[in-house]
Amino acid sequence: MIGSVSPGRDRELFIVATREVRKRNYDVGRLLFQTIITTYPDSPYLPMSKLAVGDSFFVEGSTSALIQAIASYQDWLTFFPTHPLADRVVLKIAEAEMRQIGLPDRDATHAKRAETRLKALMDRHPNSFLKPAAIERLRQVQDNLGLHNLYVANYYYTLAVDQKKGGLKGSQSRYREILDKYPSFCFMDEALYKLAVTYLVEEETDQAARYFQKIISDYPNSEYIAKSKEQLELMGATIPATNPERANTEPCAEPSFFQNFKNQFFGIYPMTIDKDGVLMSKDFDKEKFEMIDQIIENQGDITVNQIPQALTTILSDRTPAKPKGTPEPLPVKQP
After folding, report:
1. Inter-axis angle of helices 168-181 and 188-201, to 10 degrees?
2. pTM summary value
3. What angle do CA 169, 172, 174 make, to 5 degrees?
4. pLDDT tens digit string along 263-313?
């Protein structure tokens, strides 16, 4: 298939490469896309061939493939930072990191990288339709990072408060980091309560009261409400009213036993991730017309008005071809 350079060969290679990736022959598809890149440097298919290489790794989805997907997508952004698909590519890099995030008690490197990418997406593409998706993913990633800090903080808290062995400053710094970096953290009430207790241990009652009061005003349904009120009464501090805007704030939902067991067994943290690529889906449906099909039809690229304003690779359903010899319907006579 990979012969000498000839006009139109790049398009043929692109079509066959797409077909191979859809058949999950990822290595073959990548080799063909790479042939376009190295053999046809002036080809109109070159930018999308580079992007399709990243997609092929992303939809393959193994750990090693995701690492390659990140590198390929980043390489594409280096060459085409202002392309209309750039915001989607940044999101895919973030999602490739998210797919490698483990449970919060494990290494937080991938979560931190995903957080950086999602923030970059919102900063560089503030008007992107992907912004709501990025915000939701950022919330989930920051919950993972917040839990990571909470586990570390609770370890020092147990040493300092329960076992009287020191570690108070270590717990305080981690709890404060949660407050400063992750304002929407799901277990914020726990972080606030335990931070307040550390200040009680140090006899810094003004600081402790501040955090107990915040629990009562902002987390009215928290399990720490009664304990916080009790501590404020003992200190003679004011018990604040509930913030009306926070009146319906519910405690963080705990995962079911089965879900928690599944997460622990597989070492995964549940997140919202779209496992399709930018141009093509993970599970090819021959009835669907995707962006990569439009690129073939356009002879190498896709226009802004052809890119869907939704997180999907699909542009439309394919129109089934009429069998040869099918007569056209007769026009209906108007009365």
Report:
1. 140
2. 0.84
3. 110
4. 554 455 678 899 999 999 999 999 999 999 999 999 999 999 999 999 999
293-296: Cβ within 8 A, 24+ apart: 295/14, 295/45, 295/48, 296/11, 296/14, 296/15, 296/18
Query: What is the spatial distance between Cα 301 and Cα 286, in angstroms, rounded to a whole number?
Result: 21
Give the model's confidence band at 164: pLDDT under 50 very low, under 70 low, under 90 confident, else very high: confident
189 contact partners, CB below 8 Å, separation of at least 6: 215, 219, 222, 223, 224, 251
Handedness of CA 51, 21, 288, 329 (dihedral sign): positive
Distance CA 74, CA 51 (A): 10
As assigned by CATH, the class of the 1-99+273-308 domain is: mainly alpha
Taking the C-alpha atoms of residue 320 and residue 335, their distance in angstroms, rounded to an integer, is 32
Sequence ranges of the domains in the chain: 1-99+273-308
Measured CA to CA, the distance from residue 175 to residue 122 in angstroms comes to: 27
pLDDT in tens, 165-187: 888 899 999 999 999 999 989 89
